[in-house]
Amino acid sequence: MKTYDWIVVGGGITGAALAYELVKTGFAVLLLEQYETPQNATRYSYGGLAYWSGTTPLTRQLCQEAMSTTGYAYALYHILSQELDADIQFRELDLLLTIAADSDPEATAASYAHFAIPPRLLSKQEACELEPLLNREAISGALTVKHGHIHPEKIAQAYIQAFLRAGGEMQITQVLQIVQHGVKTTTTTYHSANVVICAGGLSRQLLQSAGIPIKLYFTHAEIIETPPVDLRLRTLVMPAKVQRFQLEAESTQVDELWNQPGNEPVPPILDAGAIQFQDGSLRLGQISRVLTDSHAKVNSEASEKWLRKSITQVLPALGNLPGTWHHCLVAFSSDKLPLIGAVPGFDGIHIFSGFSNPLVIVPPLARRFADFAIGKQDEIIAQLSPHR
After folding, report:
1. Which CATH superfamily groups domain 91-149+217-332?
2. From which residue to which does any coiled coil extend (predicted)?
3. For 206-233, what is the mean pLDDT?
């Protein structure tokens, strides 16, 4: 019977990055992913790298670790592309944060003053010059800042391939239960000194089924994905007043609501935005719903109609493009920070999840976790502990 040092549950970008960093450190690692073609948050992510968005000493330091000292290029991502020997489609582009027509541009800009790199305020005319597909009548202005971008699926696959080349093992199988020193799957039981849960929106359910309470939550996120189109979106468009973070905060006020399926602690929100990938395809989104059942059914027809109407108001040329509605779970915590480290009171059980924002901090934290796993002290990992 083979026993591993670490079992990593979840093959999205968090699990893939962590598995790679652990095996690179010298551990025997098994990566478990439920689907041959993942349907997780990584698959439907915008892929934005908000290195500019740190608002506290902790988040500013993590964002800084993903960029060079010049503040222009993202050193870690340049290095990663070479290290993983893969094209992760890393680039820098303009992020355009639209300000609604009935909102005060100056007041909106002021709300970003505490960010590491505050976005620059644009007039309506300047915003439409930067992004010609914008509906001038829908905005009172916009904010802009340089923003990193990767193809999220490609970087996750790049991590997995590098992990396998480094001697890691991977199995496509569903984890049914966390057991003492291992996990039980649909095919067998795997044994390991340590198990780390990186299963995104399914992490809470998996841990709770083993009697492990955790303050980790999830939204049902919905987007429309288009095939490659001839239209060219020059920027990554998002609203300046993102409702998702308020929704996450409000939905965690009563933790008991999450212990029963069928609850909807707060109403759904829609943050109208869009990103175009290098192959010409677009992701248009996103709706966020707080439904405490991870398997809850969503009315895809009504959702798609709502999405298309909202996108059309901001970017008229995109709203009626042919495309397919998709849905995934996005994990988050009650304080905007991921949960990382050992689960108190449960020997050998760890978590590396809750990265609803920003994606940019996943690689540096995976490296820090791997160093922590070999005994190095890390103040940042301690600050992100699930018992904080």
Report:
1. D-Amino Acid Oxidase, subunit A, domain 2 (3.30.9.10)
2. none
3. 96
